[in-house]
Amino acid sequence: MANLERASFGSKLGVILATAGSAVGLGNIWRFPYMTGQNGGAVFIMIYIFCVLLLGIPCMISEFIIGRHGKANTARAFSILSGGTLWSLIGYMGVLTGFLISSYYAVVSGWCLEYIWASLLGHLQGDPAYISSYFTTFSQDPVKPVFWTIIILLATFLIIENGVRDGIEKASKMMMPTLFILLLVIVVASCMLPGAQEGIEFLLKPDINKMTGDVFLAALGQSFYSMSIAMGCICTYASYFSRQTKLANAAIQIGVIDFVVALLAGLVIFPAAFSVGVNPDSGPSLIFITLPNVFQQAFNGIPIPHLGYMISVLFYILLSMAALTSLISLHEVSTAFLEEEVGTTRKRAALAVTIGCIVMGIVCSLSLGAWSGIRVFGMTIFDAFDFVTGQLFLPMVGFLTCIFIGWFVPHKLVRDEFSNGGTLRNQTLFHYYLFLVKYVCPICILFIFLHQLGLL
Ligand code: PHE
Prior knowledge:
The chain has helices at residues 12-23, 26-38, 42-70, 74-82, 88-120, 128-140, 144-160, 164-191, 196-204, 213-226, 233-238, 247-275, 290-300, 307-343, 346-366, 381-408, 411-418, 427-452. Helix 14 crosses helix 15 (346-366). By secondary structure, the chain is mostly helical. It is built from 18 helices and no strands. The structure holds phenylalanine (PHE). Residues 22-23, 25-28, 225-226, 228, 231, 233, 326, 329-330 line the site of phenylalanine (PHE).
């Protein structure tokens, strides 16, 4: 059903904060620091910046163009631009990827809530073996993680059902600045620790010897994930942009915010880890196992009472807010799809998506514990979700989107969206953009894809 009075964001700030809310998430605070730790610190960051400019921003602009021109959910927007040809399938794939990811993203977001609770109650105090077993016992429990997954999905539902302006935009306007302030407070505390210098250097002083092909590909993949590309989120949000929104400017601003938050997260974790002699290359367990240890050890020596306790609580609050704003955008992809394609009310669509995510989330969560024996191609269901969405669908949708915009959609249409109907003087920038989308992005994405499949 065509939506005559389509919802929209109410202000420029709303556009930037909501979209940055989608981009800033677990990818910045959890994935970026451990990838940096594993891939040589400053060198990784340098290459990452390059990837954001080369790949992240042009792909984001492409999704903006599709979403704003289509003024509809991702599947329909692709269909409108492609005149109903087979290219519409990319849109459907985007919606499906968004939905699948939201289920397991909700599980990890639920873990963040548990960690707020656990740090509030002082349960994250103890020796390293205890903290490690705390995480394993918790994540494999049949009830607790499911409980938190349901809570975070209900919170998402309550925001989404209020609509684009009163729900998503309002929530982003409250959470994003709070998140930023909390992050700054913890950065300052972390960088003032004795011995923090070494961590700061690790992050900011590149060692060129560490530059390898693997580091390059890891940075490419991270830029993609971190900017929420290829999952329908950016496209869906862009369908709520006004005709005045300057797409290239918005993408650059969001890219910068996303990078700054990731860098600040690094400035929390590395100085604290180096100050107590912990190596920050532990991989995905960094946030849930290494970090509680590090906070405890690093801040307990400081003569401010309960500093370690407070930092820990604040850190998990900020992590949960970052996760929530991303989860909202993932949820919105399917909600907008159902609302428009089935022709139901927003509330019903949101409820159906929430129930779907809860069911899938329960499956994902149990697959780490009680159902760990069930294997899909040798992986737990949780890992299979991660693999199919992150390593197969995501690069495929990204690649096809670039080919679609670069080679299929008439350049006049692309230029009109890029320049707001010719009112913006950004011709030169447009040519750079088109070159990147036509050649550079597809080739880079193809490399990531082959690398992730172990073929390169
Ligand atoms: N960009 C989010 C993050 O950094 C993850 C995400 C990907 C969210 C895709 C929505 C869509 O955590």
